Amino acid sequence: MGSSKHIGRIGALAFALGVGIGIGATPGVAWADESADSAPSKPSVSAATADSPTADKPARGNRKAQRATKPETGADAGDADADTSKPSRKRWQRTVSDDAPTTAPKLERLRVRTPDPDVESESATAAPTVAAATVSTPVVTAPTVTADVDAPEPDTVERASATTRVRLVELLTSGLTPKDAPSAPVASPAMWVLAAAARRQLGQAEPPVVNPPDVTGEVTGEVVVPDAETAVASGPGKGTVVVSVDGDTVSFTYNPTKQARHAAAAADADPELKSDSFVLTITDSAGSVTTVPITVVVAPANAAPVVRVSRPTMSPFGDGEVRLSVRVRDADGDAYTYSLSPTAKGGTVVIDEVGHISYMPTAAARHAAAAADATEADKTDTFEVTVTDGYGGVTVVNITVPIKPDNVDPDVRVRTRTSLFSPTVTGVVIAKDPNGDPLTYEVGDTNKGGTVTIDERGRFTYTPSAAARHAASADNASQLDKQDSFVITVTDDHGGITKTLVTVAIKPANSAPTSPSVKDVFTNPNTGVVTGAVTAVDADGDSFTYRAATKTRKGTVAIAEDGTFVYTPSDAARAQASRPFAPRSAKFDSFRVTIDDGHGGTTALTVRVGIAPLGGENQAPVDGTFTAGEPNVFTGKVTGSVTATDPDQDPLSYSGSGLTAKGSVVVDADGTFTFTPNAAARHQAGADDATESDKQDTFVVTASDGFGGTLAIPVTVAIKPSANRAPSQLSYTSSTDEVTGLVSGQVSGKDADGDLLTYQGTTVTDKGSVVVTSAGAFSYVPTDAARAAAGAPKAPLSDKRDAFVVTVDDGHGGTSTITVRVTIAPTAPVTSVL
Are residues 73 and 136 in the same domain? Predict the structure, then answer.
């Protein structure tokens, strides 16, 4: 039930309780005596300020419950022990005299707008301390009436403002004061009773409570309006409001739009964009309407830009530039700007309006990145890109870019110096590094086995090998043979490498042949030809060439590359040597041989030879022998050679070509031969009964010295058996004697080699016996049981036949078999006569 229905009954209720006089008439007021006889205890009357909450008046809570609790009545003024402490919310109290009229004027119900909380009412003004005074006439003391005056709560949100302002004190004073009566005091209890009643009757709204926005931007709050029944929100320009009513409490929930929150987040946002306002229109149960304006904070909201960085790419021009780009997405669609931090290594970096970045390292950074001991940190640079969307969204991206190493290779020159007295070559590498880097020197292997050393200052020494020096001294040595080369590498420890090819001259060196001599000298008594060989020793192991005059005083000379020579005296010289008492000089001749090692070293040797007289005795060849190889697998041919020696060292020739017993042979003059067996011999060699003689052949080769001396040399060669073909086209014929059961027949076959065939076969079978001759004839005799079984009624075919195997042999390892099947002649079955 609404409280407005009960307020009108206060007057009647007051008279019923004996307090009507105090309320209905204009009372006289006794003011405190300020003399020394005044009571020592003077309770003070004060009102809470309108701007500060008190301890027992929290900012939020159940105000209705607080108003339902009445404070205790103040103690008598004369009670020294009275508790002068009062709650933070001050109550106005006043003592009423019994001289007041017992009737009260009738009050009209007034409908008054809630005063503006910002305008301080007279009832809220602090009053001076008032004490109750004692009067001589009897006093009827009315109950003390306390009126609550709520101080507004402090709040950052603008307080509600009423459209109509009424000074309630003036209104009540005029209603309580009769015509021509003095004005009622401000602190009249009746006035405050009526004020309280009017306040409830008029639906006074307490200051609204507005909470700060939560993380979602939602703002909640409430307004306490007595007897509130309905409430409607109107006017929010940047969001939506949901209102609910619970008793005297009107609660609201405000949610700003996404666009409003984003606009409030702008760096240069106008203050108007950061708040919103709406009006709560509240109607109580009596139909009274109260409007409460609410101002709320619009919580800023913004999505920071999302930044992606492309992979850095190195410029193809070698200048070290690195290019990359940033791609930005802003969920709010904000325009964004870029800013760059300085790079860690001093490189320059620029970014355009679309996020394309160009980074250029310093020369020092590129050079440091090229160092041999450069770390990964030395090879990269870093900087930050900051993307700002103008609404508080800032994204910082740390970017690492590679540094292209850069270094200038050392500049290298080489100087060399040779010596007339030493084969070594010395030199120095003159190197300069444009970057001022320290340099190191390394030398590779030489092409011709020489050795080379180099120190830390680039000074080197080359020593050729003995083989290289000797090769450089060759008569046909090329320019390449006379020089060696190697590579010197200069490194600057920043990746700079310069390689230079150093070519040096090789000083030739050679030892001439020594100890020349003649060996293996032989004089043929028949021809007078003298043969021999010239030798020498060379410390370098060189091969020799030999030179000699082709004519001498008494003959001719021919010398080969290996130093062997042939001296042939003239017939006149031999005739002079054959004369009786010929002088010694007539029996000798000489010639000069020059030995050259091909490397500039030569030695000369004079060779003396004897001249054989005419008419010497000839000796025939001796020691004939032969060698023969294995026969050819397919042709059976055998190759070999025959040799012999001649005491006079006459050149020998060989002969003996022609037919042999089992083939033919071709003998060359130098003693080599080729034997070819005939087909019959090869086939016979493959016979089962072939003898050792069948498997070989013999022929004679003759060696001749040209002076009538000969030697017959017998030669034996193996005969390779030819491939044999087995008998084929085997067949047989047979006939059966029905009386005796004897089966006779003949097995025959053919042989491609024309071999004589022989036959042999099984002697006993399961059903009889067999005799096979070597010529292939056979006789088969069945057993009586076999014949009886063959004659049995309904005898199977297997009982009526028998078989045996005959083997045909060609005598040369070739065999074939044939199965001979014979029919068993049955005997007549025996029947008994009863």
Answer: yes
